[in-house]
Specification:
This is histidine kinase. InterPro entries: HATPase_C_sf (IPR036890), HATPase_dom (IPR003594), His_kinase_dom (IPR005467), HisK_dim/P_dom (IPR003661), HisK_dim/P_sf (IPR036097), Sensor_HK_Regulatory (IPR050736), TPR-like_helical_dom_sf (IPR011990), TPR_rpt (IPR019734). It holds the Pfam family HATPase_c. Keywords: Kinase, Membrane, Transferase, Transmembrane, Transmembrane helix, Two-component regulatory system. With 712 residues, the protein is α+β, with helices and mostly antiparallel strands. Among the domains are: 132 residues, Tetratricopeptide repeat domain (Serine Threonine Protein Phosphatase 5, Tetratricopeptide repeat, Alpha Horseshoe), CATH 1.25.40; 147 residues, Serine Threonine Protein Phosphatase 5, Tetratricopeptide repeat (Alpha Horseshoe), CATH 1.25.40.10; 52 residues; 144 residues, 2-Layer Sandwich (Heat Shock Protein 90). Helices cover 71% and strands 7% of the residues. It is built from 26 helices and seven strands. The strands form two sheets. The protein has a five-stranded mixed β-sheet, with helices on one face. The protein has a two-stranded antiparallel sheet with strand order 1-3. A hairpin with a 4-residue loop joins strand 6 and strand 7. The chain is elongated. The two termini are 66 Å apart.
């Protein structure tokens, strides 16, 4: 039988909860080839060649999970192959496949699979007929048309003995096992699944797909043991699966199984470990939201058993959230069940009834155990409200379902014993076969060693030549980089020399002029008459003004280097900052400077940056208040709307807001006569993530500068 048929059979028969998990995982593991580009049909001569190329293209789209594009391109294939019913059957299959995995459009998918099946049967195209049957059976299962699913498994049982390859037989046996797992027939499931693992282990064609299938099979057995409440056995089979599962999606499913087992065993620390790792693996993958929902449900169950209702409710809400996002009916049913149980335990009986009723709609179809449990909780909820008739109805449904489950549980111990027996016997058989295979492989390897040595020598020569060429290119690149860096260094040195030249030439003269005048005035005042004194004072004033302007230019030039400074942000007490700033203004007379911090606030900032900003804003206010009576400066701090606020206000008569434009406009130039320079204050504020605002009232003569920082 064609390998493609076997893979489809395997992919179809996934158990209901594991069906949607492991089916996805197996599909992802098949993506071994990159997506093919759309073929140019003009390059092909005959219609059949064009159709074959288009069929290969659609196959690559399916493998790369580009399902939306697959629907459109399959429609093109349908038009191309109107006269070729076999190919037409394939393209209808691809179109249905695209619908199946595009938001679970099962109705549209089923319609196309049915057309594919009909054409395959008319042309006796057995391979495509089997593929269409597999996908249709999954569609019928999802659409609750179970009779057709039973017909298919009977077909698989008929052909399994005719399959020769070990890998194919393993997949078919696994598919039959999963069919029984859907129906909670654990004995049959474990029997078939262990046989499937035996064949996979004996398969000589070891590859990633084979390993993934082994890992998935072990993981399914682990989940079955969780269902049977044999949690130590579940952990044992999880450990078997660990070394075979390499992809992130498979690992996510593994973590989920560990979480369920450890929560049931009460080992919450280990459960939390895998819960955290699961979130890191699956939280950004929408296709794995059902895993996150399932994990949260298990955590909620644990805390509900411990009567820690707040934690149980929190995890139940998360389970419900991700179940809704997953668009999976069974996962949503399970999430509603745990949420209803938490609401019942909280005494919210009406809400519990509403939530549990939602879960009950799908419970019997998906899991009889959940159906039984939900009926029991509904009975208890109605009883708590003294609605005895309703309570009796649900208790009766619970009792009947529970009796049927009890019959099945009697077989579980047999399944476990048989599984252990088969494992021991089969593993011994596997060891013998592996030994024979090893001897055979050694003989083959010895005959190939000489050829390998020759090829290795040629490869080594090629590698050495490649390395020499690579090193030569690297040296050239490094030399070019060094030349560029040297040029930049020369430019930086020239800039530095220019800067020191400015300091030496432009600032030295006015400073010397000022010093000479002061010495002359102090040591020989009698040598100057009034006219000379006025003239020298005028010269000194002009020189000082020139010095101020030159310092302003230097400050503006150096401001451009501020991007290289990195503030050290920490939490500081505002009282300490105010105290240090206050000490710097003890020389001020005739102006009342007040610092107010009624809330004893802390602020997340760079202390030196903030001190510089406050100090220079106060300096600006002092200059405005010179020679004014009743002068007052207030620096206040408080918290407001999750922000730390510092306000510097003065009664200097107010000012036009245009004078403060430099606080907002990078292009505005402000002189040093207004303090350190509003442009510098602006950049310092940006560096510490501080917003600055100005309010000025000319009528009452007050100005407010407000600094705002987000609390951290």
């Amino acid at each position: 039988m064609d390998e493609k048929i076997i893979v489809a059979l395997y992919l179809y028969y996934k158990p209901l909860i594991m069906r949607k998990i492991y089916l996805l995982f197996s599909l992802l593991s098949l993506l071994l080839l990159p997506a093919q580009k759309q073929p140019d049909l003009y390059l092909y001569k005959t219609s059949e060649e064009k159709i074959k190329a288009w069929e290969a293209y659609c196959e690559s789209l399916a493998e790369s999970e580009n399902y939306t594009l697959l629907i459109r391109e399959a429609e093109t294939g349908i038009h191309l192959s109107k006269e070729y019913p076999r190919y037409l059957s394939q393209f209808y299959f691809y179109k249905g496949y695209g619908y199946e995995y595009t938001n679970n459009q099962y109705r549209s998918a089923a319609a196309n699979f049915e057309k594919s099946l009909k054409l395959a049967q008319q042309t006796h195209y057995l391979k495509q007929e089997a593929l269409s049957l597999m996908r249709l059976n999954y569609m019928y299962y999802s659409l609750k048309e179970f009779k057709k699913g039973e017909d298919l498994i009977n077909y698989v049982k008929k052909i399994v003995d005719t399959v020769r390859t070990r890998h194919s037989k393993a997949i078919l046996l696994g598919s039959i096992g999963e069919y029984y797992l859907d129906r909670s027939e654990f004995e049959n499931f474990i029997n078939y699944k262990l046989k499937a693992i035996d064949y996979l282990l004996l398969d000589k064609n070891k590859n990633e797909l084979n390993d993934n299938n082994i890992g998935v099979s072990y993981l399914q057995i682990a989940d079955a043991y969780n269902d049977m409440k044999q949690y130590e056995k579940a952990i044992e089979y999880c450990n078997y699966a660990t070394s075979y599962l390499k992809k992130s999606d498979g690992i996510a499913f593994l973590y989920n199984t560990f979480i369920e087992a450890y929560t049931r065993l009460g080992k919450i620390d280990l459960a939390k470990k895998y819960y955290t790792e699961l979130y890191e693996t699956a939280r950004y993958n929408p296709m794995l939201f059902l895993n996150i929902s399932y994990a949260n449900r298990n955590m909620s169950e644990f805390y509900l058993d411990k009567n820690r209702l707040n934690l149980a409710d929190d995890y139940a809400d998360k389970a419900l959230l991700f179940a809704t996002k997953s668009n999976d009916e069974e996962i949503l049913m399970e999430a509603n069940t745990i949420k209803g149980k938490v609401l019942f335990q909280q005494g919210k009986y009406r809400q519990a009834i509403t939530t549990l009723t939602k879960a009950l709609n799908f419970a019997y179809v998906y899991d009889k155990r959940f159906y039984s449990e939900i009926n029991k909780k509904l009975s208890e909820s109605y009883a708590a409200q003294n609605q005895w008739k309703k309570a009796y109805e649900y208790y009766k449904a619970y009792s009947q379902t529970n009796d049927s489950l009890a019959l099945e549980s009697g077989k579980q111990s047999l399944a476990n014993a048989e599984a252990q027996f088969q494992n021991k016997g089969k593993m011994q058989e596997i060891k013998s076969l592996v030994t024979e295979n090893t001897i055979h492989e050694l003989n083959i390897k010895n005959s190939e060693k000489q050829r390998i040595y020759l090829l290795s020598g040629l490869v080594a020569i090629g590698i050495i030549g490649g390395l020499l060429y690579y090193q030569s290119n690297n040296r050239k690149k490094i030399n070019r980089k060094l030349m560029k860096l040297n040029a930049e260094l020369d430019k930086a040195n020239k800039t530095k020399m220019q800067f020191f030249g400015i300091l030496n030439h432009d600032l030295r003269s006015p400073v010397i002029s000022l010093i000479n005048f002061l010495h002359l005035q102090k040591e020989a005042p009698e040598m100057m008459n009034n006219e000379t004194k006025d003239r020298l004072e005028l010269q000194t004033t002009k020189a000082t003004e020139q010095l101020l302007n030159q310092m302003e230019d230097l400050l503006l030039w150096s401001k451009g280097q501020m991007d290289n400074f990195v503030p050290a942000l920490k939490h500081y007490k505002v009282e300490d900052i105010f105290s240090e700033v206050k000490n710097e203004f003890v020389w001020v007379q005739n102006i009342d400077i007040s610092f107010r911090n009624p809330q004893e606030m802390t602020i997340y900032t760079d202390k030196e940056y903030l001190k510089t900003i406050i100090r220079n804003l106060i300096n600006n206010s002092i200059k405005v208040l010179q020679n004014k009576s009743g002068a007052l400066i207030i620096c206040r701090a408080w918290e407001e709307n999750a922000e730390s606020v510092i306000e510097i206000s003065d009664n200097g008569g107010g000012a036009n807001l245009d004078k403060f434009r430099a606080l907002y406009d990078d292009r505005e130039s402000v002189g040093l006569r207004t303090g350190l320079g509003l442009h510098v204050i602006r950049d310092l504020c940006k560096s510490i993530h501080c917003n600055i605002d100005v309010k000025s009232d000319l009528l009452i003569g007050e100005t407010y500068i407000i600094l705002r920082s987000k609390k951290v």
